[in-house]
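Service request form, structural biology core

Requester: graduate student, group of Dr. S.
Request type: structure prediction, single chain
Budget code: on file
Notes: please return the result as structure tokens.

Sequence provided:
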Amino acid sequence: MILAETLVFGSGPECPTELLCLPLLRARYGLTFKEFRVTDAGGPRTVEALETGAIQVGVLFTTDPRLLAGDFVLLEDDRHAQPAESVTPILREELRMAHGADLAATIDAVSAELTTERLADLNRRVLLGSSPAAAAEFLTERRLGPTPRVSRRNRPAIVVGSANFAESVTVAELYAHALADAGFPVERRLGIGNPLRGTGLAALQPAPAENKNGIVVTAATAARHGLTRISDLGRAIGDADGSG
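Core staff response, request fulfilled:
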């Protein structure tokens, strides 16, 4: 018997048919689980189900601050099933052409410091306070805080927008703070909708941070079965090894 066949998997209702969820685990890892239970997509119901043992394997996003506490183990995607989903700022092309050097340099400097772990910690700070305060702290700690003010003459007014979920708002606040510190007039339009699409847009340097599906077990489950990688779930076990 395969270990995964003894474990209950939980996530949002779309997971059995969503390409980057159970179908991907079957195709890339050959995993079939004992049962699928509907919880939510990386949210509190999944966390509760893992903690109570209603499920043994679940999906949390890789920048979830709860992964920093040590109660859960993010299994390594050792067969690189999940595609890269780096945080990437998008700029209107006319702005990049007119003011590209200063503007791009300011944004790229922030992106370079934004790793997955740091973004998870930023999300944790937002839960304890607010996006503006967490953004200001992050920039100061990474030595990207306020710089000597430069003249705003001929500086374009930069409208910083975000998608309508909490992490996107937080990241947009980070860039807005950095631009304001660099002397750009900034207007915020946060939580306005889905990411921009269309022509006339330019992608700047992506951050190392990635927010994608993470396959998670509790620390106790990981210790019991020796789990560090997703492929470990495909290990053959004896009948006496228990049901997980």
